[in-house]
Amino acid sequence: MHLSSNVDATHSLDGINIRRREFIGATLKGAAASALLTGGAVGLTGCGSSEAHATPSLPSQGEFIFRGGYVLSMDPGVGDLANGDVHIKNGAIINIAPSISASSAEVIDANDCIVMPGFVDGHWHMMNALWRGLVNDKAGFTYFEVFGRLGPAYTPSDSYTGVKLALTEAINAGITTVHNWSNNNRSPAHADAELAAHTELGVRTRWSYGAPFGLSEIPWSDVPRVRQRWFAAGDRMMTLGIGATQVGLGSQTIQQTADQLSKARALGLPVSLHSLATQPDSPDSIRFLIDNNLLGSDLQLLHGISSEPYLAAIAAAGTSLAISPAVEPLTTILVPPVPAAMTAGLKLSIAVDTSALASADMFMNMRLVWASAHVRSDGSNLPSARQLLQIATIGGATAHGLQDVTGSLRPGKRADLIMVRKSDINMQLAQDIDPAWLLVSSGRPENVDTVMVDGRVLKRRGALTTVKVPEVMKAAKDALEGLRTRAGMPVLGKPAI
Questions:
Q1: What are phi and psi of 80, to 5 degrees?
Q2: Measured in Å, how far apart are the chain's first and last C-alpha atoms?
Q3: Which one of 34, 228, 297, 376 counts the least CB within 10 Å of its CB?
Q4: 403-420 as b/e, with b when 16 or more CB fall inside 10 Å?
Q5: What is the pTM of this model?
Q6: Count of C-beta atoms within a 10 Å radius of residue 126
């Protein structure tokens, strides 16, 4: 996520109160800007060629029947089946019924499991998954300080490794569609490396081309090349978008952000924009989007700080909002305005945002949305478990324009689904418990038995089928060590006793 420079609230870091405006300014003027301007790390040009990455073949789409599970379709026309079958063929959902016969299909036993659509991520800065555990609340190691130090030091290989690590975590957690808000592409080779990882792992993807951290302008000259090379198939597995730069980040002005939205729309590309205003009337407010007629159904807002006065206008324009319940309280002191947003009819999705600060766990995020709603609500408009699941599935698909492709189970849609075990130690005891509430209150990634994306089985019996996790973790560890060495980042001190 980004941080606006127009911020007056104080934020405590390791006992020191720092104005966030001063903090981001110091970050951009310090390590990040120094590396960017002096050429001490990889810049926008002169990065070297993209490294080759092996692309093993993904599992075949084939034909499958999920047999005898609780089918939680999230589709009003299909509803729930307490004991049902889901028939998959050539990547598509063929039928959902109490009993299906197909002698040519491989049967996946779904007894004592919930079969449901895979989770859809709202936005995620995937390359910085390498920083897990490194980012904390100590001075010098907060999220934006680490980004300022390590971001400019990334090679294309680091970008590939970070995105592959994030995608591995996504598959394991039952996230079948991700939105990679890609804001560290310091050369075309960096963009290619990230997209190679997406192609290799087979997760449905929206990839938004943004300006590298510390800079304000998107590499527009590279957008046509990326579009032709990686998105020409038009099969909806890979969707290209633009990550516009928020007003107030560095020297970014209202007009510059408006120009970015105009360029993206001229190319027919959806836009995603961080919204981190500190006050409803501050210069970086959503109000400037409204006043300049920049809202629209092709625009996704992230976080929506100080958005409450404008929720009805946002909803009326068809603009969606992605909230990051696990990350926002840590970096922006925000409790997501879920009850008010739901009352206004706003299209909501849940974002991982960054797994450097919180794990890619949609179960946890749904619980946090539910908890934050209690903080925000007078008790009259709390979201139900079904509504939380909608936000985490079809809500994300709608935000990305993929509601006809994924996000719910219905014949004709692509087969992006997960199977969650009810028999695990943290799950169901009483048989009359609502499965939706069970998932929200008790579910965890380790309960995800099977993950299928576009009809390909990427996780089965709790094990990933296309990724060797120890190899991914070793590559990620090596990449982080190299980054820290090149950036001159100090070693974390020993924890106090």
A1: -105, 145
A2: 32
A3: 228
A4: bebbbbbbeebbbbbbbb
A5: 0.88
A6: 32
